[in-house]
Amino acid sequence: MKILLVYPYFIDNRMDEEDISAIPMGLFSIAAVLRDSGYAVEILNAYNLGRSPHRIYQILGERRPDVVGFSILHANRWGGIDIARMVKKVNPATRVVFGGVGATFLWEHFLTHFPEIDYVVRGEGEVSFLELIRFLETAGDPPPAHIDGLAFRQAGKPIKTRDRRPLADLDQLPMAADYFSFQHVALSRGCPSNCTFCGSPAFWHRRVRFHSADYFVTQLQRLRERGVSFVFVSDDTFTLQRDRVIEICRLILKRRIEIAWAAISRVDCVDAEMLKWMRRAGCTQISYGVESGSQKIRDLYRKRIDDTDICRAFDLTHRTGIMARAYFIYGAPANRTGPSTKVWL
Ligand code: SF4
After folding, report:
1. 336 pLDDT higher than 80
2. How close is the Cα of 331 to the center of ligand 1, in Å?
3. Quick one: pLDDT at residue 344?
4. DSSP secondary structure, 270-310, as one string
5. pLDDT, tens digit, for every residue of 90-119?
6. Smaller CB count within 10 Å for the chain: N or C?
7. pLDDT of the residue at 17
8. Kindly report the CA angle at 118 between 116 and 119, in degrees rounded to 5?
9. Contacts of 187 (CB under 8 A, 6+ apart)
10. Rounded Cα gap, residues 233 and 326, in angstroms
11. Which segments of the chain does DSSP mark as H helices, in order?
12. Quick one: pLDDT band at residue 228, thresholds 50, 70, 90?
C-alpha cells in the first residue's frame, strides 16, 4: 500500500507566505504514525509547486500511490480539489482522503459536491487515518462504519461515523523528526479561549493537551541534527503553561540546541521572566492576536483583552529582544453580537 500525503496550493497568492508555505505539522505526524506501522509514505508540498499540473501529473505517474491524503486548512481547499481530480484521472482506483480543519467542518459539503473525494478524516487524524488505511488494505467494502472520526458516502449519501475520542497522551505519538525534516512544531493541541472567529474551539472543544517538555525538546534536537535551524512553534497559545515553557527553554539551553524559533501567544499570557527564558533559548518572534484597534470589535470577537494588555505585552516583548508581531482581522461585522454563521464556499 503506497500512500502519498499532499499539502495543496492556495488559489490566491499570499502577501507573506513564509509560514504558510511550510507543510503543517499534522501531516508529518500522520506520516510518522503510518511509517511506524510499516507503510510506505511520501509527502508532497504542492504549495511550493504552485499551480503546475504537468509537474503534479508527472509525480502521480511516477509514484502511482494507492491512497492520496490531503491536508485541507481552508484557503487551500480548491487546490486540494484540483489535485484530487488529477489523481482520479491518472488512476480512478486511487482512494482520495481529505483531512484537516477545513475538511472536518466541510465534510458534508465535500462529499455532496465533489465525487473525487472518497473519504474525509474528521478531527484528530492520526489513528482514524491509520485505521482507514488498514481497512482499505484488507477489505475496502462495505464502507467502514466501525471506524470513528470518518465520513464517506453510503448509498450515495454523505454520512459520518462517531466522533473519535482525543488521544489521551500525546507523547505516545511516534516522533515525526525520526523520519522527516519539517519546520512547524507544536507543544500542545487546543486552546481554552473561545474567540468567535476561530476554528480552534470547535475543532479541539477548548480542551488542551500537552506534550512533555522532554518530548518537545527532543523533537527540536532531532530536527537540528537534520539541519533545521529555524522552526515555527505553531501552538494556538504556546505560553499557556508558564512553568512548562520555562522548563523547555532550560532544556534547550542545557542540551545546547542552537535553533531559532517563532511562537504564537496571547497578550495576557506572557510575563517578563518567561520572555527572558524564551529569548535566551532562541525565540526571535512572537505573534499575538490583537485582532482590532477597537475595544468594541475585540469584545465582539470575545477576545477578552484590552489596550493595557496589548501595550504591556508588546513593550515587554520588545524589551526582551524578541520581535512582537500582531495579527489583525479586517471586515468585522460591527452590528452583530455573535459569531458569523455564514460560510463562504
Ligand atoms: S486565543 Fe487564539 S487560538 Fe485561542 S480561540 Fe482565540 S484566536 Fe483561537
Report:
1. no
2. 18
3. 37
4. --HHHHHHHHHTTEEEEEEEEE-S-HHHHHHTT----HHHH
5. 999 999 999 999 999 999 999 999 999 999
6. C
7. 80
8. 135
9. 210, 211, 216, 233, 235, 238, 244, 248
10. 16
11. 25-36, 46-49, 53-63, 77-90, 101-105, 107-113, 126-138, 200-204, 213-225, 242-254, 272-280, 295-300, 307-320
12. very high
Q: Name the residue of 194, 195, 305 to mutate for ligand 1: max ligand atoms within 8 A of Cβ.
A: 195
Separation of alpha carbons 288 and 307, rounded Å: 13
Give the pLDDT score at 345: 36
| CATH homologous superfamily for the domain 170-344 | Aldolase class I (3.20.20.70)
Ligand 1 pocket, Cβ-based, cut-off 6 angstroms:
191, 193-195, 198, 200-201, 236-237, 266, 289
- The ligand 1 atom at the shortest distance from the C-alpha of residue 191 is 4
Structural class in CATH, domain 2-160: alpha beta
Q: Where are the domains of the chain?
A: 2-160, 170-344
- How many angstroms does the Cα of residue 194 sit away from the middle of ligand 1? 6
Amino acid, single-letter form, for residue 322: I
- Stronger pLDDT, 228 or 335, i.e. the higher one: 228
Asked whether the predicted pLDDT for residue 181 surpasses 50, the reply is: yes
Angle at 59 between CA 53 and CA 63, to 5 degrees: 150
Nearest atom, ligand 1, residue 201 CA? 5
Kindly give the distance from the C-alpha atom of residue 238 to the centroid of ligand 1, in angstroms, as a whole number: 11
pLDDT in tens, 115-161: 999 999 999 999 999 999 999 998 766 789 999 999 999 999 999 99
